[in-house]
């Protein structure tokens, strides 16, 4: 996604355990996890040769939230069916926390973006067919707006790119300050 802004990133998966304090709200949880990921990559860069310390580390974490409760990635068709049927004909929020760190100066910006997504009504048969595809199982909330389930999105209030997984406009704004 960031490539459409002319940036060619080096992808470095962060090895972290994705847990956060239980009393943390979804907005803070996404920023907390993004910060954990960015810090893990920063430590890896500090201890290795060949990485340009003037680069910027960008880490993000996206969750789907309904009734202030974080909905994870479904593990199986039954869980995917349950999650998506609970979101049928109503709205939910997609919240992405981002953290940017410039290792050379240790400047840091963390923020979150919240987009409200409304689903259309869909039949159990349509949902049953969808949950037996590979798409729901590596995505928060069990769907990708840019994927086949996107046809069941009625409308959004906010940033489409955020729902895909990275609020690009805000990321680019913060990059100007680093």
Descriptive notes:
A hairpin with a 4-residue loop joins strand 3 (91-102) and strand 4. The two termini are 20 Å apart. The chain is α+β, with helices and mostly antiparallel strands and 178 residues long. The protein has helices at residues 26-46, 77-86, 124-131, 160-164, 168-175, and strands at residues 57-66, 69-71, 91-102, 107-119, 153-157.
Please name the CATH architecture.
Alpha-Beta Complex
Percent in helix: 25-40%
Category from helices, strands and their pairing: alpha+beta
Q: Approximately how much beta-strand content do the residues carry?
A: 15-25%
Spans of at least 5 consecutive residues whose pLDDT stays below 50 are none
CATH topology: Maf protein
Shape: elongated
Using DSSP, what is the number of strands? 5
In the residues, how many domains can be counted?
1
**Biggest sheet, strands in spatial order?**
2-1-3-4-5
Largest sheet: 5 strands, antiparallel
Q: Report the average pLDDT across residues.
A: 93
Radius of gyration: 17 Å
Order of helices and strands: HEEHEEHEHH
Number of helices: 5
Q: Gap between N and C termini, in Å?
A: 20 Å
What is the C-level CATH assignment?
Alpha Beta
């Amino acid at each position: 996604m960031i490539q459409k802004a002319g940036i060619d990133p080096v992808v470095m998966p962060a090895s972290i355990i994705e847990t956060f304090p239980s009393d943390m709200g979804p907005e803070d949880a996404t920023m907390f996890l993004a910060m954990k990921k960015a810090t893990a990559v920063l430590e890896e860069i500090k201890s290795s040769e060949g990485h340009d310390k003037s680069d910027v580390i960008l880490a993000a974490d996206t969750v789907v939230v309904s009734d202030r409760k974080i909905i994870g990635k479904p593990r199986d068709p039954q869980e995917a069916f349950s999650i998506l049927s609970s979101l049928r004909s109503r709205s939910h929020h997609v919240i992405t926390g981002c953290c940017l760190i410039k290792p050379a100066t240790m400047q840091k910006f963390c923020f979150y973006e919240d987009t409200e997504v409304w689903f259309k009504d869909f039949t159990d048969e349509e949902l049953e067919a969808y949950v037996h595809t590979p798409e729901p199982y590596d995505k928060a909330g069990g769907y990708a707006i840019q994927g086949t389930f996107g046809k069941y999105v009625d409308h959004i209030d906010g940033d489409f790119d955020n729902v895909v997984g990275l609020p690009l406009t805000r990321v680019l704004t913060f990059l100007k300050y680093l």
